[in-house]
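Q: What changes when alpha-D-glucopyranose is included in the input?
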Amino acid sequence: MTLNVLFLTAEAEPFVKVGGLGDVAGALPDAIRNLSNTFPKSKNVDIRVVLPFHFAVKQKGFKPKLLGEFGVNSSEGLVNCQVYYYDKEGLPVYLLDGDPIDEKSPVYSLEPIHDGYKFVFFSLACLGLAKFLDFRVDILQANDWHTATAIYALKTREIPSPHLSKTKTILSLHNLPFMGFGVQKALTDYGLPPSENTVLPEWARHAPLPLGLLHADRIIAVSPHYAEEILTPEFGCGLEDFLNTRKSALQGIVNGLDLDLWDPVTDKVIAQNFSNDDLSKRPINKLDLLQEFNLSQDENIPLLTLISRMDAQKGIDIALKGLKYLKDSPWQAIILGTGNPTIEQMAVDLENEFPEKVRSIIGFDGKLAHRLYAGADIFMMPSRYEPCGLSQMISMRYGCVPVARATGGLVDTITPVTRKVDGGTGFLFDKPYPSVFATTMRRAIRFYQKPGLWKKIQNNGMKIDFSWENSAQKYIDTYYRFANNI
Ligand code: GLC
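A: The predicted holo structure follows.
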């Protein structure tokens, strides 16, 4: 029997992308559908994506087809939802519109209540969509707090539609700290009171993410290690005791990488293409950067890079402070990112302190990012927490060796280098301290100075298969295993 999956997301490439969720939602459903199309018909997965028809999507000029309209119940009567359809190379995508969505507001607003009305309406509309489309939903997969309300509503309300009567639910967890606080009024306005279940701490009983986590049949974190970490006080955000009660429903599946977009063999942006077999061409990319940024050229000096959104999660401050401990070591660094002004300023200050070593570029520059992955020797990823992470996979694929915090998906995707390298692909450190970062970086630099060993580390990383097909297979296995009694 074909398995019907409705995949709910606040963002998805190429329609709209704000963060990592946009990458995942723009790639995983396609990979699942394409992979399942190679199976016998009885094993097909008819996965369909639903996202809000945000102002940003309209601005981009997408012209989906209007299919019709239905109403979503609220305390003030029906709120209309318009259903648009877009065929994304064989993947059905539904864009839902309606008054709470059709505003010239950003994808995520700074006003929690505004987001509340938008995403509570959207989540409930996703449930109405099943009937509208006459689509029997076997699995409803929500992502993060924005769509977790769909699970809460499905499990706590009388659902009149036979299309949802046997639906199993999955909540994918990309970022636990964002729980959707401040949207309680939107929930109650749409007839969803706080939960009375005492297994949830009281403060969590009116936020969409905990409510979804309470009721989801399965919880999938975006890496196995993150799935374990959220059971501890350090990463559980106060929900660890509750999450421990849900342990048997919890698993982790690592995200994939778009191998066409990120391929040093075909990358059109970088100065010199290269592969695992001809790494000797790679230094041309480094030279290109050193020249452009006016840094001295010396092949014994490793070029470090950091490409990131600058916020507390990413631990940029740990690396920036850590580098100060290394003032007598040989290194140069190019830092690229934007975000929190305090962290941006720290990056600028580091360049001022080490003008011969550091360049800090405050901003977002996709092309430069490609060139940095291709030309730098070491990639710094000091995240305080990292549910999965993408940059470490890109950097390894480009022969740029990661020095990363041992957290979340970084643990699942980076194999630590041992004394003889073995299968090592990078360097991991445990404590989020600048001094520990510095010690690990010193070790990485020592390896860099032994070109034979360094090449082996690069080769190891470049060989890893980070394809989405790997993840898609795991999702399909999970869907079938857990929907077997449908
Ligand atoms: C969030 C997480 C990141 C993860 C991404 C996609 O942005 O912070 O670690 O890779 O979601 O799942």
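Observations recorded in class: Residues 19-21, 24, 174-175, 222, 255, 386-390, 409 surround alpha-D-glucopyranose (CB under 6 Å).
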